[in-house]
What does this fold into?
Amino acid sequence: MPVQALDATLASDPATLSGAPKAPPATLVIFGAGGDLTKRLLMPALYNLAAAKLLDENFAVIGVDRLDGSDDSYRQSQTETISNFVAARSNRGATLDEAAWTWLRGRLSYVQGDLQDPRTYQAIGWRLNEALRERGQANCVFYLAVADRFFGPIIDHLAAENLLREQDKAWRRVVIEKPFGHDLASAKALNARILKVMDEQQVFRIDHFLGKETVQNIMALRFSNGIFEPLWQRDHIDHVQITAAETVGVESRARFYEATGALRDMVPNHMFQLLAMTAMEPPTSFDADAVRSEKSKVIDAIHPLGRAEAVERVVRGQYAPGTLHGQHLRGYREEPGVAPDSGTETYVALKLFIDNWRWAGVPFYIRTGKRTHTRRTEIAIQFKQAPYALFRDTPVERLTPNILTLHLQPQEGASLQFSAKIPGPVVHLGGVRMEFSYADYFGTSNSTGYETLLYDVFTGDNTLFQRADNIEAGWRAVQPVLDAWAEGRGELHPYAAGTAGPTQAERLLVRDGRRWMKLA
Ligand code: BG6
It folds into this structure.
């Protein structure tokens, strides 16, 4: 993550990581080369990096998957991937950069193999030796774009073939997708298995939220402006709301989602990353360990939920049939692959506290759900009410609260809500909003969010990746809730698809005299 100060009016498309030097030479081995993640995000991100001329002449990709295929057929299928990627963005002016794609396409090769078979890893080893002989480079990134049950076995096989050993200044790195474990014990076990065969510096546990420009911008907003930080604490902040609402349902992922649910899928990872960015102390530098230590500390400081709190402060819901824009939406239990009596939650809301000097007593309300009526990811920081003696005749609930909202998606930007006098002879106050939109200043970008993350892996910058302790701190905070649910405590509330979620989630705030931000 290169950090530079630029005049905003001069900055260009962030996808180009403008001004960044080329990444060092490397071979990228993608496990799951024919999978959805590779098609939707990895290959398009590599193409964008190639178009921005950020990949080295000696860069190469080895795709590994179990389906039959050859170098040629792999190049062909990825050409379709990129054509689709560009076509989907044609309304934003995207056109295929033929030169960039030809450049990247010529560097793709394919290894067919079973991920549990040692011969697959021997074949990869030969290809890497070839790269060393032909291009004189032995740096390698192994990208695990596969189901989580393969993480441990792949790492064991790579270690057994001696492919993780760094020697003669050549580095070996492994990128691991989520879900990283399904509870605290399994996350710890996976970390232990990984760290037995490689060093923490070699491990890049990805959380794709951290690839989003607006998520990275939280740190910039907080720490490069003098006006926010003095107010960023319990004396001035009433509460914080973090929302990730999605209109999509479970789609074709029932097998994964049935065993996972909204809490595991979103909270210890994405939502806690947003919480950490919002609540952490300023790191002493942008150095990876400095940033990750601050994040770990704040997640560690989440007040451990007691047995009763794990139920009282948490609401879980599941979408039932509903309508959106006149269209019938089926309920979760009617989705293909979902059990008709499924107890998996598709919505969760939590009230948490952070036990430290900055945040003691300030509630952090978190909610995330599928099949809501609108898509919205945002962080709203609500400031305490001004002393209202001056406006004695205005009922206090009518004074507009000051809310700083960081809009992460789909609109990207920030807005500040405050009160102003409505013109006229009588002093009447009205709520107004000041808005900053990313698109106005920086234009829209065709980046996937993975460009920065991949570039950081090649340059060895772990700042935007989760360290073992970050992951474990997240699971530790939600474990009491998982335990409560496993004991059959905590009711599952149905909510109609196309609404804001279960009404019980409203009550979580109403009983504190607060309200969720409106979703639309
Ligand atoms: C993924 C979850 O990690 O994040 C999905 O598994 C979720 O269930 C997705 O839809 C949300 O990411 P984004 O970038 O679409 O907001």
Summary: The pocket of 6-O-phosphono-beta-D-glucopyranose is lined by residues 178, 246, 265, 377 (CB under 6 Å). The CA atoms of residues 184 and 476 lie 6 Å apart. The chain has two domains: 14-177, 210-386+463-510. Residues 5-16 have pLDDT under 50 and may be disordered.
